[in-house]
Design goal:
By secondary structure, the protein is an alpha+beta fold. It contains three helices and two strands; from the N terminus they run H-H-E-E-H. A two-stranded antiparallel sheet has the order 1-2.
């Protein structure tokens, strides 16, 4: 049996806009580009992570500063 959504569409079909957002996110991390991050995250959003059984919450502003700080290391390596 195959799963379908209430509107009859295939739930495994990925929305093209979602794929663009995911690609932009990975590009932002790779390029250390906080403007790209801003394009895919709401200004009041947070990221969640689990480490050793503890949940960690980081507001997007803090995460963006961390990403921007990475450019200091990646530009030296280039």
């Amino acid at each position: 049996m195959f799963a379908v959504t209430s509107d009859g569409s295939d739930p495994m079909t990925l929305d093209p806009d979602l794929l663009v957002a995911i690609e932009t996110y990975f590009d932002a991390i790779h390029d250390c580009d906080i403007q790209k991050l801003s394009a895919v995250f709401h200004p009041q959003s947070s990221l969640f992570d689990a480490d050793n059984g503890s949940i960690f919450v980081e507001p997007i502003d803090s995460f963006s500063r961390d990403v921007a700080g990475l450019s200091l290391y990646t530009s030296d390596a280039a």
